[in-house]
Design goal:
Rossmann fold, 2 domains, 25% strand, binds zinc ion, GMP Synthetase, Chain A, domain 3, four-stranded mixed sheet, alpha/beta
Length: 441
C-alpha cells in the first residue's frame, strides 16, 4: 500500500489527549538533556529546576526560553555545534545552517534518527498541502548550508515526490527548464521569488501560465496569507499556492490544507508549540483570535534538542475544528516580532504594508522594503522603497509617490517617505528582507 502521511490518530486528538500522549516523551527528552547537554544542565540548575519535575506541558512553562543568539555565541567561540550538543560526533550525520533573514548562520546538527523525524514531519506538512507521490517538485531554495535546500528536499522525497534540486540563481535557465519539463510541476520557493520569476518570464516574452507550474509550495517568508498576494501569484502562474511553515532548528511542522484557513500545526509527537506574549514571556492560552509569538520545544531529538526556542514569529491562532477533520491549532503568520517596528507609538508589521500596497497593483509590483536609517525611537517618517512596474511612465511617478504615501498614511497608520525603485531590485532569490535597519546600536 502506498504510504500516507495523514496521521489521523495524532492529527485528530483533542488538546488534552495530545498532552497526555506527549507528556512522557517530553519527560524523557528533559532527562536526556540533563544527562548529556552541558548547556541545558546549567539552564535547569540555574533556574532551580530538577529534570524529573518537567513531566507535563504545564511544568515546561517553568523552563527559561532559549534564544538562537545564545546558542550562536558558543559557535563563535569555536565550538562546532555548542554546549547544547548531546549526541557524540559519530552519531551525527548532517549539519545545516539557519539564518537568512537576520544574523549569522548557526550550525544545527542531526543524527540519522533526527533526519528521519524531520522528513516525517515535513512529509506530514506537505501532505496537508496536497503534495502526493508522483508530484514533480522543483526546489528553488538555497542548497548551500540552509535547511530549505537539502533538508526540505529530503522531506519531499520521503513523501514520495520526485525532486529536482535547482537551488538559487540563474532564473532565466530555470524558466527554460520549466518550459522543457513535460507535465505539471510544483514550485518550492519563497513567495517573493515566484513574483520575481514571473517578472523575469514576462521580460523574456514568456507567459508564466504556459509553464504548467500548477502547484506552489511557499515558505521562508510571511506574506502568502496577505489577501491579494496569494491571488496574484495564483493568477499569474495558474497555480494553487499553499503556505508551509517551519523553523530550521526543528523542521517544517505546519501547513495549510485545502480550506486555506490558516496553517495546521502538525508536529505532534515531535515538537511542542506554545504561544507567548513576546514582551512579558507569559504563556497564552490557544484560543480563537489570540495572538502572540510561537515557542517550540523538541521532544524527540538526539543531536541537539532545544527547550522553548523563541521563534520570534508573531501569529494569530484558531482552535475551531477544520472541515478537513484536523483538530490541532491553526495559525496565520503576521510577521517576525523582530521585524515589527514602532513608529510614533504604532506597531507596524511588514505584512500590513504588503496588504496596503496590493491596492496599487499593477502599477506597483507589491515588493517593498522599509529603511530605518537612525536608531529608535522612530519618531520620523521612514523611507519606504517600493517597486514600480516597468509600464508606468516616469511622468506619472511623482503622482504615484503621493498616492502611495496617502494610502500608507490612512490604511497602515504611519507616515512614510516613498521612493520608487525599478521592478526586480527588491525581491531576492533567498528570503527578502522587508525591514532594513541602517543603524548601529
Ligand atoms: Zn484543515
Amino acid at each position: 500500500m502506498a504510504p500516507t502521511f495523514w496521521c489521523e490518530e495524532l492529527e485528530t486528538m483533542t488538546a488534552g489527549e495530545l498532552r497526555r500522549y506527549e507528556a512522557p516523551i517530553l519527560a524523557a527528552q528533559v532527562e536526556y538533556l540533563y544527562a548529556y547537554s552541558n548547556y541545558y544542565r546549567c539552564v535547569l540548575d540555574n533556574a532551580g529546576i530538577r529534570p524529573h519535575e518537567i513531566t507535563c506541558h504545564e511544568a515546561l512553562e517553568m523552563v527559561p526560553f532559549t534564544e538562537k543568539k545564545d546558542l550562536a555565541q558558543a559557535q563563535r567561540e569555536g565550538l562546532l555545534i555548542g554546549p547544547h550538543q548531546c549526541a557524540p560526533m559519530d552519531k551525527i550525520v548532517r549539519l545545516v545552517g539557519t539564518g537568512g533573514t537576520s544574523g549569522k548562520p548557526m550550525r544545527i546538527a542531526w543524527t540519522r534518527e533526527d533526519v528521519h523525524a524531520y522528513s516525517e514531519m515535513g512529509a506530514r506538512a506537505l501532505w496537508i498541502l496536497g503534495c502526493r507521490p508522483g508530484d514533480l517538485v522543483v526546489n528553488c531554495f538555497n542548497y548551500s548550508i540552509y535547511a530549505g535546500g537539502v533538508m526540505d528536499h529530503m522531506a519531499f522525497e520521503h513523501l514520495g515526490a520526485a525532486v529536482l534540486a535547482y537551488g538559487v540563481g540563474n532564473s532565466r535557465a530555470l524558466l527554460d527548464l520549466l518550459a522543457d519539463l513535460p507535465g505539471d510541476k510544483c514550485l518550492y520557493s519563497t513567495p517573493s521569488y515566484a513574483v520575481r520569476l514571473a517578472g523575469i518570464a514576462s521580460e523574456a516574452g514568456m507567459e508564466p501560465r504556459t509553464l504548467n507550474v500548477r502547484k506552489g509550495v511557499f515558505s521562508g517568508e510571511a506574506g502568502l496569507q496577505v489577501p491579494g498576494y496569494r491571488q496574484k501569484i495564483e493568477k499569474t502562474w495558474g497555480m494553487a499556492a499553499g503556505d508551509l511553515y517551519g523553523v530550521a532548528e526543528l523542521g517544517c511542522q505546519s501547513a495549510e490544507c485545502e480550506h486555506r484557513n490558516g496553517m495546521h500545526f502538525c508536529g505532534q509527537g515531535y515538537v511542542i508549540a506554545e504561544l507567548i506574549d513576546p514582551d512579558s514571556g507569559a504563556v497564552k492560552k490557544m484560543k480563537d483570535g489570540e495572538t502572540g509569538e510561537l515557542v517550540f520545544t523538541s521532544i524527540r531529538r538526539q543531536a541537539s534538542p532545544l527547550l522553548r526556542l523563541r521563534s520570534h514569529d508573531f501569529v494569530a491562532v484558531e482552535t475551531s475544528r477544520c472541515a478537513c477533520g484536523r483538530t490541532g491549532f491553526r495559525f496565520h503568520t503576521r510577521g517576525r516580532s523582530d521585524d515589527m517596528f514602532v513608529v510614533k507609538g504604532v506597531n507596524i508589521f511588514p505584512t500590513s504594508i504588503q496588504e496596503v500596497l496590493h491596492e496599487l497593483h499593477p502599477r506597483l509590483t507589491g515588493e517593498f522594503q522599509v529603511a530605518l536609517d537612525t536608531p529608535p525611537p522612530f519618531d520620523y517618517a521612514p523611507r519606504l522603497l517600493v517597486e514600480v512596474s516597468p509600464g508606468v511612465p516616469s511622468s506619472q511617478h511623482a503622482a504615484l509617490i503621493r498616492e502611495t504615501e496617502a494610502v500608507i498614511r490612512t490604511k497602515a497608520a504611519f507616515a512614510a517617505l516613498v521612493e520608487l525603485v525599478p521592478q526586480g531590485t527588491i525581491a531576492s532569490e533567498h528570503k527578502t528582507r522587508r525591514v532594513l535597519r541602517n543603524y548601529k546600536l
